[in-house]
Design brief:
The structure is a homodimer of 450-residue chains. With 450 residues, chain A is of the alpha/beta class. In chain A, the strands form 3 sheets. An 8-stranded parallel β-barrel of chain A has the order 1-2-3-4-9-10-11-13, surrounded by 8 helices. In chain A, strands 5-6 form a two-stranded antiparallel sheet. Chain A is globular. Helices cover 39% and strands 14% of the residues of chain A. Chain A has one domain (6-280, 363-442): TIM Barrel.
C-alpha cells in the first residue's frame, strides 16, 4: 500500500509567528469573529487538507497587553465550522483534567453527528498552571497525576461512545419502536477518579468515535499516545530527532498491540514562503522586527514554570545554567527539552532564542521558496520522520494561501498528496479504520455462579 | 410604551406530542441530523419568532425502546444554528449542577460571539435523578442544595462575563497593543462550592451576557427566576393560574429591585391547528391513538420520583391518593403540582391523564383553528397572563408551518406581533437592555488601611 501524505492546518491567532497579528498579510478580522475561522477552514479545504486543528488553554495569558491571547472556545467553533465546510476534518482540543467525561463524550459525539463524521479530539491534560485556579484547584495536579486521571478518563469516554451499538436506533414509525434496548448498555464505570453509569444519551456518531489526537511528547505522553492516539502532533528542530521520535512512537504502538500505521506522526512545520529565498528571508525579518522581546520573555517564563528571565541580557550567548532543571518543571516537559537542546547546540543569545521561539513556539520553522518547502516535506516523509505535517503558517491567511497555491501543487505533481478528497470522514482522510463497539467486559464467572 | 408579544419556538423531538415522531406531518430526518434543527430554526426565523429553544436532560430516558429519546447536545447545536440563521435568538439549556462554571461561561460567551449576540442560556439545576449517576454522584443533590449551588454558580459566571470591559480589546496593530489590561480583571471567587480565579479567557460578547432564561416554577425556582431570569418558560393549564404566576413573578422581581418588564413570562402553548375545529380534533385524536400508554406510565413515574403506576387500571377515574405526596418528590416539583391539579379538578382516568400529558407534558394544549389559537394568545397576553408564548408545536415541522403561515399573520394584523425584525440580538428582540459590566466589589477599607 502506498503511504499517503497528510496535512493538517493548525489555526492559531493570526498566524504562528508571535508578531503575525500585526503583519500586513494577516486577516483584518477580529479574533472573536467566527468568519475568520470559517474562512481559514474553507481555504484549507480548497487545498484538500485532511483537517484543521484548534489548540486551547484554559486561562488567559498574562501578556495579553501585547499579544493576541484571545480566541473562541474550540468545541463551539468546530460546530460552526461544520456548516461552513463539507469535507475537511475538524479537530478541537479539550482537557481531561477540567471537563466532566460525560460532557466531553457527549459534545464530541454531537460534533461527529453535526459534521457528518469529520471530528477529532486533541486530548490534553492542561499543563498551564494558571488553569488550575479557574477550576477550584488550590494547586495544579502533578504531571503524573494528570496522566493517571487521563488514562481513566479515556476508559470512560471510550465506553460511553461504545454504549450504543451502531444499529441501535430503529426509528420504526410504523411499529412504534424507536430503539433496540439490547444495543444500548450502561457502562457502570467505578474507578479511582470517576463514577459514570451511562449509557451516553446520544447514539454512536458516524465515525464510531472521534479521531483521537495527542501532542504530549514526554515519556508519559508518548506511552499515552501509543495506547490511545491515532494522530500525534509533535515538535522537532531536526530531522534526526523527528526520525527517532517517529520510530520510537511506532514501536511503542506496536508494543501495545496496535498497527503502527494507525498512529500518524505529524510534526509541526511553520513555513515563511517567498517566491525567492531572499523574499522569504525578508518576510521572516519583518516578522522578527515586529516581535516584542518582553512578550517573548514572559512566554519563556511560562514554559519554565514561571522562572524569571528578566535579568538576562538580550545579546549574550545563553548557557544551560540560565534555565531551571527541566525535571522540576511540571508543565509541557518535552517542549522545554526542545528549547534546551537549541541552546546547547547553537549557542544562541536570548534575543536569537526568542526570535526562534517567536516563529512557532519551538516547532520547526523555515523561510524558503515553495520548492524548498515541498522538498523538506518530501524528505522528512520519505525518510521516516513524518506521515505528514501539522502546517503552522507564520501569517494567516497570507502564508496559508501561498502554501495552497504553490506548495500543494508540487506535492501533487510528485504523487505525494491527493488531487481530490476520496472519502467524507476524517477517518477516511487519515486512512484509519472505524472502530467497532468494544465488547462489554465479560461477566465474572464467580459472580455468575452465585 | 406598547407591550410587544414574544414568540419562542421550543424544539423537541419531532414535536411535543409524545407520538409526534410517528405522525405523517413529522420530519423524515433522523433526530441526530443537524439539518432537522437548522430547517426548524429557519422556518421559525421566516415566521419572525424571537427565538428558538432547546431543552436537555443529562441521562437517557428508560423508555427509549418506544419513545424518541435522542437529540444532539444543545451547545454544539446552537453553534451550528448560528451559521444557518441570521436574526433569530438561540437558547440552549445547560446545567449548573453538572458543568464547571468556567467552561459554561466560556462556551456561552463563545456562542454569543459566534451568533453575533443572539444567545440565551436556559439555567437548569437538573432534576432528573439518573443524571447524578453520570457525574460521579452516589446520590442526587437535594432540590435545596441544587439551588444553593446554582445561586453561587450565577455569581461566578456573571463575574466571568464581566471580567472584561467592553472596550478592553484594542487590537492596535501599529503600536503592538492588543488589549488594555486595566479593563481585564480576575474575579478571585472563593465560595462554598466554587473557587474560580478568572478572568475569562475570552472578551465580552456582543450582548455582554447571554440572555438568562429559567423554567423552574417551584417557590425556590420562582425566587431564583426573580433574581436572575430575563425570560421564564412556565406551564399552566388555565389562564387564572397563569395570571397568578405572572403577577407573582413580576412582584418578586420588583422586590429584588428589578424592572418587572425585564422578566418576560412565556407560558407553554402546544397547539394542534386545523382549518376547522373538526380537523384539529381529528389530528389530536390521531396523535393520541399513536401514543403508547406504557411510555406514558414510565414518564409519569419519572415525574414522580420513580413511583410505580403500573398497577393502576387505565380507565377508572384517578384520585390524589394514587400519587405520592409531591413534597417527597425531589424533582421538578412545580410540574407535579400541575398534574395533581388536573387530577383533582377534572376527575380524569389514567388513560385520559396520559393523553393530556402526551400532548405536551403538562403544558397548555389546544386543538383549534388559527383564529382560535390567535384569540387565546391575544386573550392571555392582554389579560396579563403572558408576555408571549413558548410555542410547542404538537408535530414538527407540520404544526410550526401552520402556525407561521396562519397564526402569525392574524397576530400581525391585530398589531400584536412584529412584521420584521427591528434588532439583531436576542436582547433587542426581547426588549432587554445590554447589561453593563458590574463594578468589582469595593475594596474593604479595613484591608486598605493596613
Amino acid at each position: 500500500m502506498t503511504r499517503e501524505l497528510h496535512l493538517n492546518l493548525f489555526i492559531h491567532a493570526r498566524g504562528h509567528h508571535e508578531a503575525a497579528w500585526r503583519h500586513p498579510a494577516a486577516s483584518p478580522l477580529p479574533l472573536t469573529d467566527i468568519r475568520y475561522y470559517q474562512d481559514l477552514a474553507q481555504r484549507a479545504e480548497a487545498g484538500l487538507f485532511d483537517s484543521i486543528f484548534l489548540a486551547d488553554q484554559l486561562a488567559l495569558g498574562d501578556d495579553v497587553a501585547h499579544a493576541p491571547r484571545t480566541w473562541l472556545e474550540p468545541i463551539t467553533v468546530l460546530a460552526a465550522l461544520a456548516g461552513a465546510t463539507s469535507r475537511i476534518g475538524l479537530i478541537a482540543t479539550a482537557s481531561t483534567t477540567y471537563t466532566e467525561p460525560f460532557n466531553l463524550a457527549r459534545q464530541f459525539a454531537s460534533l461527529d453527528h453535526i459534521s457528518g463524521g469529520r471530528v477529532g479530539w486533541n486530548i490534553v491534560t492542561s499543563w498551564l498552571a494558571a488553569a488550575a485556579g479557574n477550576y477550584g484547584g488550590e494547586r495544579q495536579l502533578s504531571h503524573a497525576e494528570r496522566y493517571a486521571r487521563a488514562e481513566e478518563f479515556m476508559q470512560v469516554v471510550t465506553a460511553l461512545w461504545d454504549s450504543w451499538a451502531d444499529d441501535a436506533v430503529l426509528d420504526d414509525r410504523a411499529s412504534g419502536t424507536y430503539a433496540d434496548p439490547r444495543g444500548i448498555r450502561p457502562i457502570n464505570h467505578q474507578g479511582a477518579y470517576y463514577r459514570v453509569a451511562g449509557p451516553l444519551n446520544l447514539p454512536r456518531g458516524p465515525q464510531g468515535r472521534p479521531v483521537l489526537v495527542q501532542a504530549g511528547s514526554s515519556d508519559t505522553g508518548r506511552r499515552f499516545a501509543a495506547r490511545h492516539a491515532e494522530a500525534v502532533f509533535t515538535a522537532h528542530q531536526e530531522k534526526a530527532a523527528a526520525r527517532e521520535f517517529y520510530a520510537d512512537l511506532k514501536a511503542l504502538a506496536a508494543a501495545e498491540g496496535r498497527a503502527p500505521e494507525q498512529v500518524l506522526v505529524l510534526p509541526g512545520l511553520s513555513p515563511v514562503i517567498g517566491s525567492t529565498e531572499a523574499e522569504a528571508q525578508r518576510i521572516a525579518r519583518e516578522l522578527n522586527d515586529l516581535s516584542d522581546p518582553e512578550v517573548g520573555r514572559k512566554r519563556l517564563s511560562g514554559r519554565f514554570g514561571g522562572h524569571d528571565f528578566s535579568h538576562l541580557p538580550l545579546d549574550r550567548p545563553l548557557s544551560p545554567e540560565d534555565f531551571p532543571d527541566p525535571g522540576t518543571v511540571e508543565a509541557a516537559r518535552s517542549r522545554t527539552e526542545v528549547i534546551l537542546g537549541l541552546v546547547r547546540r547553537e549557542g544562541l543569545t536570548l534575543r536569537q532564542l526568542l526570535h526562534r521561539l517567536a516563529g512557532a513556539r519551538g516547532h520547526y520553522t523555515m523561510a524558503g521558496t515553495p520548492e524548498q518547502v515541498a522538498a523538506l516535506i518530501e524528505d522528512w516523509f520519505l525518510a521516516g520522520a513524518a506521515d505528514g505535517f501539522n502546517v503552522m503558517p507564520a501569517v494567516l491567511p497570507g502564508m496559508l494561501d501561498t502554501f495552497v497555491a504553490e506548495v500543494v501543487p508540487i506535492l501533487q505533481r510528485r504523487g505525494l498528496f491527493r488531487r481530490e478528497y476520496a472519502g467524507r470522514t476524517l477517518r477516511a482522510h487519515y486512512g484509519l479504520p472505524r472502530p467497532p463497539v468494544r465488547p462489554a467486559p465479560a461477566a465474572r464467572p464467580d459472580l455468575a455462579a452465585e
